């Protein structure tokens, strides 16, 4: 099962029209674009603005991606939160046919203990008909899954991996050295892909791949094949982008990149606001500088 998620998983954006309804025509363009440089698709993640899409829209998005998937790529669907009972209800209410795994973010705001995190994820894994990928992103959630907690959760037969956005190389090394070999470790930070693959990670769930599908896929697979000279050279080309993409929060930056590419408009829902003119100019200049336009 974990080999299904080897390489690049693109965390799909959700394009909006000017009235902020979902632009499914643009979403099809995005899917067709990223399919040439993705090994699987991630739907309803933070990059897809899951905090501001309704329950009905989430179902519509999943259904649309299932039908609009030209290469029949595996699909990961985001279902997470800080109310365990609500997460369980949403799992039961979601049609997970055709979904290969659930990506579930670490509970945020209420700051559970590590024991609480273990109980939370075990309850999710017990209830889910498909495997669970943990998502540790302390920069957004404040709470962080410890190495010991991840090791404990890896013992559950239905918890198969971790998207690691801790931005800690030290913790990543401990995880790679401690966890079972068949437990999936993927980067949640586009700037650390080459470094993390060098210590045993199997790829990335990526934001950048929405706008730079083929080159980011080539970089990731060069690293996975042990060609770190090529991978590092390509990784360095993305450094400026990664800083710019998050300058006004995610997915503001990557939506502007996709707008520059003509894939969609750059609209986002409040409390996010669309990229400023200066950011758009900087992103386009960086794209031209690195030969991506």
Structure description:
This protein is an alpha/beta fold and 293 residues long. It has a single domain, classed as TIM Barrel (Alpha-Beta Barrel). The protein is built from 13 helices and eight strands. Strands 7-6-5-4-3-2-1-8 form an eight-stranded parallel sheet. Helix 9 (213-224) packs antiparallel against helix 10 (228-237), helix 11 packs antiparallel against helix 13 (277-289) and helix 12 crosses helix 13. It is globular, with a radius of gyration of 18 Å.
Helix percentage range: 40-55%
From the helix content, strand content and strand pairing, which structural class follows? alpha/beta
In CATH terms, the superfamily is Aldolase class I
Sequence of strands across the biggest β-sheet: 7-6-5-4-3-2-1-8
Q: What is the end-to-end distance?
A: 36 Å
Global shape: globular
The CATH class label is: Alpha Beta
Low-confidence stretches: none
CATH architecture: Alpha-Beta Barrel
Mean pLDDT: 97
Largest sheet: 8 strands, parallel
Taken together, the total number of domains comes to 1
Number of helices, counting only DSSP H or I runs of 4 residues or more: 13
CATH fold title: TIM Barrel
